Amino acid sequence: xxWSTGMSYCLHSESHLDTGPIYVRxxxxxxxxxxxxxxxxxxxxxxxxxxxxxxxxxxxxxxxxEDDRARRQRTDHFIFTYTKEGNLRYSAKSLFSLVLGYIxxxxxxxxxxxxxxxxxxxxxxxxxxxxxxxxxxxxGLRALQKFTEAYGSLVLGSLCLRNRYLVISEKLEEIKxxxxxxxxxxxxxxxxxxxxLLEHLTKEALSSxxxxxxxxxxLSDAGLRRMTAPIRVLKKGLENLLVLDLSCNPKITDxxxxxxxxxxxxxxxxxxxxxLKDVDAVIKRLQTQIGLVHSKVPLKEFDHSNCKTEGxxxxxxxxxxxxxxxxxxxxxxxxSRVAAFHFxxxxxxxxxxxxxxxxxxxxxxxxxxQFYKENVQNCHLPLxxxxxxxxxxxxxxxxxxxxxxxxxxxxxxxxxxTVEDWDLLNTY
Length: 428
What we know:
Blueprint: H1 2-13, E1 22-26, E2 29-33, E3 40-42, H2 68-75, E4 78-82, E5 88-92, H3 95-105, H4 118-130, H5 139-151, E6 158-160, H6 165-170, H7 172-176, E7 183-185, H8 196-200, E8 211-213, H9 221-233, E9 243-245, H10 254-259, E10 268-270, H11 279-290, E11 293-294, H12 314-327, H13 334-343, H14 361-366, E12 370-372, H15 390-411, H16 419-426
Parallel strand pairs: 6-7, 7-8, 8-9, 9-10
Antiparallel strand pairs: 1-2, 2-3, 4-5, 10-12, 11-12
């Protein structure tokens, strides 16, 4: 019966051919196929002969050829579990999860997310992140830009790229897409004066940066002049900067320190390990012009332990780093060659990863040059290194975490969706 129905459909599509009446025997009865409606009706056969098919009629065998992706999309609509008896049980996913998965698969085709509720956007970002959509070369950047232009600091409020110069070189455009960063740690990256990322620091997208750590980046006076040009001339750029770390940059001299006097809001400054010629004159100049006092002890603001990657894209940055490490894996085979050279007594230069130490030789020569403002709280606290002071550090961390929770709860006050809206979404 199914064959006759399909055949009648094919004949219906070729209605311009005059095939004549068609008879099909089913269950001992003879039926006449009605080509107009595709139905079946009882009829008595006519005596005259007829032609079943025309000479131009052809038959093509069509098979159901599903690809793996279509089959996977069909099974993704269900959740498969097992009962206690070992039987397979499946249940349909909610409509919300199905739509979320479909949009995350095509997240690079989104036109804009401005005005979209941030609770749903966070779930969409997590779903796309789980599918590693932001690690793709072209589409990942386009998708990430849609989130950063709509949500800013929620996507990433703090970024730590300390000693991750390979991630910077591979994902420079993605890093430049982050907006409204408040903390940026670029320590030990050897960027130099003319790096594109340092030029990006003066853009309006990063005018919200309050903590900037540029320790050991091969900077000189020319780099500082270029970095401070917008705020010195146009009163724009890093105008909200509070903490600046320029330590372990021996090419920075007394002239470069003069460019820093335009940061009127600066509360903490570290210039240890720089190439200053007249240290006493620099200390007096910083105190008289921008009110920074020389600290006798190390400041906790330059401990580098407080700067962490925080935001929706925290796992995305880790995925970038893992991808870079995967690309470097073939170099691990060189270890066996180095061991062979040692065994046979040949001298071989071993290239080691440059690690940023806490105290550089230049720092010991010039001493500790960290500055703070006396009227600012929580800026001039010393860095405790004794065992007895470890409890105070733990308490400070707990207070910082509590303050972060308060900030997060305060941010959630202006969220668009209410509890009733979530209940409505969960019903789908």
